[in-house]
Specification:
16% helix; globular; 5 helices; 5-stranded mixed sheet; alpha+beta
């Protein structure tokens, strides 16, 4: 199983190069190192998981950027569970469960369908997700596109506080242009999400802590950014690699 990642995995505190930590995280979950792929991709995004006990700190989390999804995923958790999608390989369950502090059985029976009938070029895709323990979660674009997780064990990437996202192409052959799907999860303290692709900004609705924006075609020269606004007025601009670049 191959993986993909976003530029926001760059470590802000200068601990070390992004991909060294990325490969360490992936190795612990049992996935292969990153390779470009168009099918069956599952990535594990790293983020900080720092816990505070004081009531004042808890109130702070509700408004400001906080580690992982510790501010909550109330919309996602309110949805009914659904059977594990046949298009997501069950052989990934042990790694996904380890990343989210669950058993494989718990992970399999925690899946939610958060959005359906989405367009990715000529494909129709659905967005699935399940919450884990200690501010972790996984989200998938199916069928045959991929998924990402925020795991429970990494504490070195505050740039992913309250958000896990990816920007991936569809299953068309690699070329200088093609469709794009921008998708992910945000915590309860995220007020809004915007995508900026090639200099054009687009508001993305947040639906039960999930978001998705589909593009019929982008060029390999287009930049891809996500602007996340939190309830305290803080904003962060995150970057993803263009899947059609070299």
């Amino acid at each position: 199983m191959s993986t993909n990642w976003s530029d926001e995995l760059r470590i802000l505190d200068g601990v070390g190069p992004t991909r060294d930590l990325w490969e360490d995280a992936v190795a612990r979950v049992g996935f292969a190192p990153p390779r470009r792929a168009w099918r069956r991709r599952t990535a594990v995004a790293v983020t900080a998981l720092v816990f505070a006990a004081a009531a004042s700190a808890f109130a702070y989390r509700l408004l400001s950027p906080s580690p992982g999804f510790t501010a909550g995923l109330s919309g996602l958790e309110s949805l009914p569970t659904v059977p594990w999608p046949s298009s997501i390989p069950t052989d990934s369950l042990p790694g996904l469960a380890s990343a989210t502090g669950l058993t494989p059985d718990q992970a399999e029976h925690s899946m939610r369908l958060v959005q359906s009938g989405l367009s990715l070029g000529t494909q129709t895709v659905d967005l699935y997700a399940f919450p884990g323990k200690r501010g972790s979660a996984c989200v998938f674009l199916a069928p045959q596109v991929g998924g990402i997780c925020l795991p429970v064990w990494m504490q070195s990437n505050p740039s992913l506080d309250g958000v896990a996202w990816a920007a991936w192409g569809g299953n068309a052959p690699m070329g200088p242009s093609g469709p794009l799907g921008v998708f992910g999860l945000v915590a309860d303290n995220v007020r809004s999400v915007q995508a900026d692709v090639g200099g054009t900004t687009r508001d993305i609705p947040i639906v039960d802590n999930s978001f998705y924006a589909g593009y019929d075609s982008i060029a390999n020269t287009d930049s891809i950014e996500l602007v996340v606004a939190y309830d305290d007025g803080t904003t962060r601009t995150l970057h993803a690699p263009n899947p059609y670049t070299g």
